[in-house]
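Weekend entry, working from home. Most of the wet-lab plans are on hold until the incubator is repaired, so I used the time to fold the two sequences that have been sitting in the queue since the last round of cloning. Logging both here for the record. First:
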Amino acid sequence: MNFLDKMIGYVAPAAGVRRAQARAWLDAKRGFDGAKRGARGAGWIAGGGSINAELAMSLSTMRNRSRDLLRNTPYMKRAVNIHCANIVGIGITPKFSDAGAAAAWKRWARKDCDAGNLLNMGGLQVQLVRAIWESGEVLVRFRVRRADDGLDIPLQIQVLEPDYLDDSKTYQFEGGFCIAGVQFNKIGQRTGYWMFEQHPGEVANLAKSMTSKLVPASEVIHFFNGMGRPGQVRGFPELAINIWKARDINLYQEAELVRKKLEACFSVFVTSNDQQFKVAPDGKRDEKGRRTESLSPGMIQYLLPGEDISFAAPTGNDGYEAAMRVDLRTMAAGCDVTYEQMTGDYSQVNFTSGRMGKLEYRAYVEQFQFLAFIPIALDPIAARWATVAHLAGQIRSPRFVPDEWTAPRVPLLDPLRESQGYKILMENRIISRAEVQRELGYDPVQMDLEISADPLLASIPSDKSASDKQTARLLAEDG
């Protein structure tokens, strides 16, 4: 504290306190390089609004651009397909402690669950995951059917794009508030969704009113990746971070293709001061008076002094492949997949590096499955199903909800070595055999029934342990 600060603090203590606080804040700000101003940060404008304020003006544009990239960029399509195949596979299946509930769910999920009568539960799950990457969010509408519809469990689910939400509904009222079509009560609980009766971009929308109506929150599941910023109400496309990178790659590839097409054209450049000069003796003129020349094999043409002919020489790749590989690695990181997964190029990996990439990707997949997809989307669907199934007399209690969910099977890169690793973990009581089965995508109860009835395992000598039999089973499954 200098002499001036001391004097101000003595004469006006309040002003001195404010001066000291301002000085401390300035010193703290100067301590972070990322907060410093200067030439490097002259064009960097970082907003300080909430996530909802930032999404309000850009959500529709990001969503449309993301969809366009998914339609027209092979790498983006590949990345989304990789996510759907690993997160959902052929379906994340529930495990019920009640056999009757398990059988009822299996029947319903196989043929009656889709309001469009097209997909089974696994197909609907793929739609949900794909929408997260393409649109950032998706709506699930519960549709309770009449008794004369002929369904054992009169419940179907309808998957809707987020365009059905009325983004213009942002206001505050006495009992709560509404943000971008999602209505809340005073304590921030979701109470309803302002939804259109049909897609705003549908070709037949001229025949119907585009007035939105409030649908109770109990009838809708709003699924988006809720692990983002706190207080986030709407989801934004996971592909949004790659919008410009993917577009630049498309334009770069197109420019390279055009360059190669031009180089493939055999071009001759003639330099001469004589307007009557002809490269070939059969020079002619077209209907507009322009000179046309031709060259023939074996032709010998003598040039006069001051005349010259040069040919266009194609250039090399100029680092095209290396530049593309760097850009694609960046785009793969933005898509949360490995470069090899997105491109199918495994020329620069070995078993160890490939397995490391697989383990990192599996960590992301499991996080999304068990922290977002299952609790936000699948658990509410199962809870509503149990209620309706009980009322329809198909299960004994509405509390017969899944105890857990089994994720898709994880294929082994090296069945022999990886199975031996699981065997050692089980023998040392670090992990249970049931947990190994679940990790590999199997239902432990179902697998135990199959193992006991499997003639291949029955031929194994009796002195082998259960873990040895399980290892044999894993090896048989993986060839």
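Second, folded right after the first finished:
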Amino acid sequence: MSNAVLITKLRPPPARPGDTPRPRLLARLDSGTERRVTLVSAPAGYGKTTALADWVAHGSASAAWLSLDEPDNAPQRFLRHLVAAMQRRDASLRELGDFVGEDLEAALITVVNDLAANEAPLCLVLDDYHCIAAQRVHELVGFLIAHAPPQLRLVIAGRNDPPLPLARLRVAQALTEVRADELRFTVAEARSLLERQGLRLAAADVEELTLRTEGWPAGLHLAALSLRGRSDPHAFIPFFTGTDRFVLEYLTEEVLLRQPAEVQDFLLMTSVLDTFDAELAGAVAGLGGAGDAAAMLDRIERDNLFLVPLDGQHRSLRYHAFFQDLLQHRLRTARPDLPARLHRRAADALEARGQPEEALRHARLAADEVRARRLEVFLERLQPAAEALEAQALDAGGPDPGRSDRGTSASAAASPAADPALEPLTERELEVLRLIAAGLANKQIARRLDLSLNTVKTHARNVYAKLGVGSRTQAAARARDLGLA
């Protein structure tokens, strides 16, 4: 085996002309200096490498850098490059030869002892750690984390959570975590990015574009590419989705096609659902039970495949809007016969769960006219009772906590298939509440969820009644108190 070291793997990538300074991220990375490990974990295109390279360039740390790739799954190659990276910052580290033999821990002990003898602080950045699949390499990194001297800090960046002792580090307060929520662009950062790309948009257009991309950095860069040369950017922005050519190519090549076949199939089939839990996803994907679907969703969430939790318990979920656009496009293209069948499965499951409004939407998408008409008649009969209950709750200042029927969805309570264990809020109401808590106006929520403004107002009134509140501010505060947002 060659003992050559590829020097370009030991240098952070240089800044690009369009990169946007993000001082808040630099401060966040600085804040973890006292902890042993920093994990930067987010889906593709969230600017992990860019943020870390900017952090290193600004002198926030005396950092050794190692960009990982597939060949680093060979333990000897990995260890050779690991030592070479640290030697660039600490010349006192000894050469370890070719690491002949299997006792690589002995080689690491030599590294640890040399680091301990030199008290100067050292930060080691392991970028693109998602490229590592070899358990032996994970064991070596785990050994280094467990036995490193206090002056060594590790920063591990990748598209998924690595199989390292993260839970133990959390309990020991030795782990700093930077995830997608912190890596998303704010409106101000998006404006700066677009201006650096030569685009000067109206404030409302920047806000709309940030909203549509959900602050996804790659999405904003790709939007800038699509906007160049357009005479009327304002007219284009409402049509910028996950099926834009640049977005479609990026997500297909960088995300979807890198997944195993069973994960791709699950993603495609569940893309017909706007929001879902394990039970509903399993029913639509044909997995037969919530257990298998829950295991698949756990896997997808660990791998950061653009899955967005809608509650604190991660029971209610959705896909990032652009990722859902891609999945639905692939589904229609590859299996044009399948979407209608999947919508019928969704309608079956939702009606059985006592969610007739959502069941009706899927029945219409499945072109199941008989079921759709039956559900329409049911909801028409239910509407006067629901309106009376809502008015009563609002007049009384909210539901009586001593009355169990006040905390139940009117449609679920009246449906013959209702499950008494259902959460008081429907999935759509929960999503509206989450967006209210995030500070979005009704018009913004309508655009995000592709609903009419009147429908959003109806959902908001239902949410107020069920939570016993009378304003958006109170609803947001109540949602946070209950761990719903």
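Plan for Monday: verify the second prediction. The first strand starts at residue 37 and ends at 41.
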